[in-house]
Amino acid sequence: MAGFKTLDDIGTIAGKRVLVRVDLNVPVADGKVSDTTRIERIVPTLDELSKKGAKVILLAHFGRPKGAPSPEFSLDPIVNAVEALVGRPVAFAADCIGKEAADAVAKMKNGDILLLENTRFHKGEEKNDPDFSKALAANGDLYVNDAFSAAHRAHCSTEGLAHLLPAFAGRTMQAELEALEKGLGNPVKPVVAIVGGAKVSTKIDLLMNLVKKVDALVIGGGMANTFLAARGTDVGKSLCEHDLAGTAKQIMIEAAEAGCALILPVDGVVAREFKAGAASETVAIAEVPADAMILDVGPKTVEAVNQWIDRAATLVWNGPLGAFEIAPFDAATVAAAKHAAARTKAGKLVSVAGGGDTVAALNHAGVADDFTYVSTAGGAFLEWMEGKPLPGVDVLKA
Ligand SMILES: Nc1ncnc2c1ncn2[C@@H]1O[C@H](COP(=O)(O)OP(=O)(O)OP(=O)(O)O)[C@@H](O)[C@H]1O
Ligand SMILES: O=C(O)[C@H](O)COP(=O)(O)O
């Protein structure tokens, strides 16, 4: 792949110690991994390295333990899930540097996989402290980064190590970078973005960046209310950041200047309560009752969104169009997701989506596998959409 070394460039690795940065920051409930998607994504890299005879040493973080060991943030309970998905034994060492790690590495045979304890149990990790990078590098001959979702962090295991050892993108990192290149880096035009979710405040940089890059920007979800209110529409009791009216206006101005069509809801599904089965009605956006909340965009808006999807060659999506966790306010997100999936399957659309709730919404619609690429990254995907440099990616550039 242009600009990055991948596993195709790694050469003979039998007997070599390969430090592989993975993202095992997975949801755990009652001591069990409740969503294994991130683990599934790293299997191709681990499988390939192990089959080629490397000693595969995994580096990962879990949670935010603030630089000190804490049982709550141990990676130990994750080992079983990794073993089950990789289909071979995975050893565990209770520290990622020092004697504990070195002894575990010394015991490895070619093809073995070893997971080292949470890198964030050491203060040096998040400070990108060169001494901590050296301590990590002591256990490896080569470095592979397969954790795009942690690449927005300039930490020792995501950035520092790449300065000390020959560095390569793993298969998931490679797939992610190739998909993102197709999404916004070098997309086939026209490009349409759908941005939804709860609040404008969390996505200001993203919206500012997108209006300069895409041909049309659909704004849905709770954040659309802030734009509607800024335009003078009464949104009743809807979630709305009235203090951000100025920001919303500025985004609308920048969109107009850049020639980006900005699409706001023309109708909404409103209710008086935010709960499953709450009585709801569809109203024109200028007729939202003063005591009601907009919890989804309405069918006329979905029709408009789908028409934009039909015109698009590339679609980038972050954030649901409504409160999709609660029926019937999932209808618009499900309908637009299905439409985008069908266009993608027909070979007419490149569709790239990301964000924790977005992935959940696409899964809920049953179409996540039909998108061109669905990123498991949260913060890293947002920072990429904001146009910010990702230290863990930049350092891999040849
Ligand atoms: N009209 C609405 N009113 C209130 N909440 C809404 C509305 N539309 C969407 N939401 C909420 O927005 C949330 C998702 O937004 P968010 O911005 O977090 O998405 P994301 O970027 O995909 O996720 P993450 O931040 O986890 O990566 C959901 O919980 C959804 O219920
Ligand atoms: O879950 C994520 O988004 C990544 O693993 C990064 O985690 P962090 O936000 O704690 O750095």
Automatic annotation (TrEMBL):
The keyword Kinase applies. It is found in: Cytoplasm. Pathway: Carbohydrate degradation; glycolysis; pyruvate from D-glyceraldehyde 3-phosphate: step 2/5. Keywords: ATP-binding, Cytoplasm, Glycolysis, Kinase, Nucleotide-binding, Transferase. It catalyses: (2R)-3-phosphoglycerate + ATP = (2R)-3-phospho-glyceroyl phosphate + ADP. One of its GO terms (molecular function) is kinase activity. Its EC number is 2.7.2.3. ATP binds at residues 203, 325, 355-358. Substrate binds at residues 23-25, 38, 61-64, 120, 153. SUPFAM superfamilies: Phosphoglycerate kinase. Belongs to the phosphoglycerate kinase family. PANTHER family: PHOSPHOGLYCERATE KINASE (PTHR11406), PHOSPHOGLYCERATE KINASE 1, CHLOROPLASTIC-RELATED (PTHR11406:SF23). Monomer. This is Phosphoglycerate kinase. The gene is pgk.
